[in-house]
Amino acid sequence: MASAKIVVIGAGSASFGPRTIADILQREELRGSTLALVDLNREGLQLVAALARRMNREWGSGIKITATTDRRRALPDAQFVIIAIALQREKRWRMDWEIPNRHGVRQPLGENGGPGALAHLARNVPPILDICRDMERLCPEAWLFNFTNPVPRICRAVTRYSSIKAVGFCHQIGAAFGNISRILGVERSQLDIKAAGLNHFTWVLDVRDRRTGEDLYPALRRKITRMDPSFQPLTRAVYEAFGVFPAPGDGHLAEYLPWCHDLRTKPWEKYHLHLYNWDGAAKGRHGMWKQIEILARGKDSIDPYRSGSGERAVPVAVAILNNLNQYELALNIPNRGYITNLPEEAIVEVPGIASGYGVTGLAVGDLPEPVAALCRRQLEITELAVKAAAEGDKQAALQALLLDPM
Fold first, then answer.
1. CA distance linking residue 48 with residue 21, whole number of Å
2. Distance (Å, rounded) from C-alpha 390 to C-alpha 209?
3. How far, in Å, CA of 143 to CA of 187, rounded?
4. How far apart are CA 184 and CA 199, in angstroms?
5. How far apart, in Å, are the Cα atoms of 89 and each of 69, 178, 253?
6. What are the tens digits of pLDDT across the range 184-193?
7. Euclidean distance between the first and final Cα of the chain, in Å?
8. Assessment of whether the complete model's pTM goes beyond 0.90
9. Could you tell me which of 167, 38, 147, 169 has the C-alpha nearest to residue 89?
């Protein structure tokens, strides 16, 4: 076992902070490590730090915990920096949707594709590149694990404008397991799925029975036609057109396609595309803070946090520290020939291996050419949007908007 220093930036959040901390504190391999919590929200940070110390004490985790609003105090000698930051997330996201809508552009979601993604990126790239500059000086060999959306654009900004090693994480591959298990009528644990492409825009290249190795794509093709028409109608339409099953589900898939926002035909009705529930999310976050306050005072049980976050950053960190050669379903990393008909250096989402060597992808070869063409358009937009956000280039921002299918 190898101890480490892990810095969590954005720790003072109600959802991301406590569950990521719980992931860290429950790993026996990290005993003796240092966990540095960082957030600009002093009040939230203090509450989450108090909860973290309670977890550490009651679970006997043996980890040193610090908390600060100044990341420069936390970063020296870090091996892993986990980032999930957002400024007024629900308020700003709602504006990202409402402003284009006033001008006739009705986005399906407005976070990872379309004009909303450009605005979201522009808010987050400057502070994240500031973090990277501090990392270059204080912990240049550390891995940056990013959860901030839009994940591939943020990671591309890091790899294009800094020397820091970055990996993006997202749990959306779970949607493929859920949808395909429902279509086939089997348990998720029975499936072996390999998907590749871009984050929230990945494509299922192979589906097999984990026990027997049987190719399940023929059964998927047969059985999907028997599903209720209301089941993932956009995914099914795209699958029928392109012959490859989209992995992320309708909500995210719609963000990247030109067929989902026409104000006259209202395709969101045809495909049952629902907007993000900003009010519900804000209400839920308020409830989480109330519970964190109670737990931080030592009341109620912390056992619900035993379930962890379900995210993969901490398992990957442990795999790197202990050379576990661990297989991962989805990693957002620079393309090193993993997808042969997408550009080198683009941030792609592929299966991969985490080991003492670092994080490497598995080569999946070519995507089907029409699918690759859809992805290449998004990658061209990404390069322009990242340039706009990092350099303040208004012309690049305009070009990114004009290229976008939304």
1. 9
2. 44
3. 35
4. 24
5. 19, 27, 21
6. 999 999 999 9
7. 49
8. yes
9. 147
